[in-house]
Each structure stands twice: as structure tokens, then as C-alpha cells.
């Protein structure tokens, strides 16, 4: 399987993006439908799909910009940025339909409006 890698020279940024116990990487993996991992100062996604690889790169870039702007890299931020990058929906959403996914939250909120 091919993988896309992103080298981050700033180890503080890498640590922030990965999150505690790499929890943010598991969130990204769930959203992208592929395993995301770190090794050294690199982030990898295990996917042959070039669209997923491109989305991964865009998501990491958006997270890095948000962190540089003073926002912490939380799972909610990652979910929101992913939603911005996939405004028409995402075919690669995890099959489990995570309760924290933007579509699950939006449908719940619509019920109350």
C-alpha cells in the first residue's frame, strides 16, 4: 500500500497535531477512512487513494494554520476543519457513523430547531 507522508520540522507542532496518545491521529484516520500514524517528525496516511492523500495533506495544513493562529488542535477542531474541506459530504467517513461527526451533530441540532 502506498502512503503519503508530511514532514514537520517543528516538533511542538507535530506533538500538538498528534494529540495526547496520538488521539488526534485516530480522529483523522476515522474521518479519512485510512490509518494515520507518526514516525519521527513525519505523519503518514496508509492509502492508495490520491484523493484521500490530498485531503490528508490539506487537513494537516489547515490544522497547522489553526495552531499557528492560537487554536489548540482538539478533536472538535479537526472535525470542523475536515467538514470545511469536504462541504458536500465525505464518501470516506467511517462506517461506524461516529456521534462526534459533523453530520451526526447537524441532524441532531436540526431536530430541535
* Annotation, overall tally of beta strands: 3
The strand order across the widest sheet is 1-3-2
On the 0 to 100 scale, the average pLDDT is: 83
Estimate percent helicity.
40-55%
Strand content: 5-15%
- Class from secondary-structure proportions: alpha+beta
Question: What shape does the CA trace take?
Answer: globular
Order of helices and strands: EHHEEHHH
Largest sheet: 3 strands, antiparallel
Distance N terminus to C terminus?
Answer: 45 Å
CA-atom Rg in angstroms: 14 Å
Q: Can you count the helices? A: 5
Residue windows where pLDDT falls under 50 for at least 5 positions:
93-113
Description:
The chain has helices spanning 11-18, 23-32, 50-68, 75-85, 102-112, and strands spanning 3-7, 35-39, 42-46. It is globular, with a radius of gyration of 14 Å. The chain has 113 residues and is of the alpha+beta class. It has a 3-stranded antiparallel β-sheet.
Which descriptors would you attach to this protein?
113 residues, alpha+beta, 5 helices
Write the layout of secondary structure elements.
Layout: E1 3-7, H1 11-18, H2 23-32, E2 35-39, E3 42-46, H3 50-68, H4 75-85, H5 102-112
Antiparallel strand pairs: 1-3, 2-3
Helix pairs in contact: 2-4, 3-4
Concise structural overview:
This protein has helices at residues 11-18, 23-32, 50-68, 75-85, 102-112, and strands at 3-7, 35-39, 42-46.
Amino acid at each position: 500500500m502506498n502512503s503519503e507522508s508530511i514532514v514537520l520540522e517543528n516538533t511542538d507542532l507535530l506533538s500538538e497535531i498528534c494529540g495526547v496518545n496520538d488521539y488526534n491521529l485516530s480522529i483523522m484516520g476515522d474521518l479519512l477512512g485510512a490509518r494515520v500514524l507518526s514516525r519521527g517528525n513525519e505523519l503518514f496516511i496508509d492509502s492508495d487513494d490520491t484523493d484521500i492523500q490530498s485531503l490528508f495533506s490539506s487537513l494537516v495544513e489547515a490544522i497547522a494554520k489553526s495552531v499557528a493562529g492560537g487554536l489548540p488542535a482538539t478533536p472538535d477542531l479537526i472535525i470542523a476543519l475536515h467538514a470545511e474541506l469536504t462541504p458536500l459530504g465525505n464518501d470516506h467517513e467511517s462506517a461506524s457513523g461516529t456521534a462526534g461527526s459533523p453530520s451526526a451533530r447537524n441532524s441532531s441540532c436540526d431536530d430541535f430547531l
